[in-house]
Batch of 2 targets.
Target 1
Amino acid sequence: MKVLLLKDVYKLGRAGDVKKVADGYGRNFLLPQNLAVLATAGALKQAERIRSHAALQRDVLNKEMGAVAQHLAGVTLTFAAKASETGKLYGSITTQMIVDALKSKIGVEIARRQVDIQPLRTLGEFKARIRLTVDLLPEIRIIIHREGEVVALPAEPAAAPAAAPAAAPAA
């Protein structure tokens, strides 16, 4: 089935694009959600108008979310978890846990579906993308360590030497 997208659809396309999709996906998801219409001759005539209108909306949304993206870029979250000898967690770090940690750390509230990462089940360092808009995908760093261990963050020691030279000229 060929459809004309009315809105940006993640992993499918942008508004105004004509895409060939599975019949069930189009009939059961895209059409009822008003994300697309059937690609008829009449609808195709409106494609350019839909494309330009969506571009304007995308620009406005990108400007609004730009400040949020700056807050999120470079954020490091740490989680203490129980783990086996091999480093496998007893449980997992889920997207909901990541969202809750972001809310408590920087006060930004996002939906768990916007976090692009599978549940984390091992110790280590991971990168996760936050899907704010189609164009804005800031990355955050997630560190998972064993309970009781102290983790030294590389970003914090780098900030301390920067403060020391500033204090030296004042003295």
Note: The chain has two domains: 2-45, 69-153.
Target 2
Amino acid sequence: MISLLHPQATLDDAYAIQREWVRVKQAGGRQIIGWKIGLTSKAMQYALGIDTPDSGVLFDDMLFEDGATIPPDRFIQPRIEAELAFVFRENIEGASLSMHDVLAATDYVVPALEILDTRVKRKDPESGIPRTIIDTVSDNAANAGIVLGNTRIRPDDVDLRWVGAIVSRNAVVEETGLGAGVLSHPARGIAWLAMRLHQYGGRIEAGQIILSGSFIRPVEARQGDTIMADYGRYGTISCFFERNA
């Protein structure tokens, strides 16, 4: 783990590692389609001893259709989170932004599942020390995939704090949550992301997809599992993790 090998590493160092990884991916032909925001719940922040979210990049090969079958060799140890994904009709950037700025620039919102995976062990096998935010940010904030729903939500038609999901594994409910669990409103994390990108000369661009942060704890996705998130009037999303032959 980077946090053990380089105990003085900072978040800026971790994002520099992430940017280099992104550069390598782009050089190999991958296209950026958006961003993900993580560690948006107070419970996860308290657990890691931090007071800020983290972020990673979404690439074109991470996007799966609703109902997709995930090959058994695609991920290492995947987990699933339920979120809302924002799709933007306008660029958004600046050093001082509010959730209202985010909502004004949003084209639509859709239910989404994020597939988490990481090359970093959750705990060092020798010392038992858990990974830190330095490790996860360096590894693209643990993002590995995204499954989008089909129901578009206009952000001015509904209070997104009350949009939530019942998440099941093999028809057994594992987690439930509401959008309010994401920094009190899902758009707040996106304002944070846009301001962080602005510090490095970047921005959220029109057409990009932004995963605003999970409102449930991660659900383990084992081979043979079907994961489904029921968003009520906004439909369901599912994916199946295929077993090895």
Note: The helical segments are 2-5, 11-27, 42-48, 99-105, 133-138, 186-199.
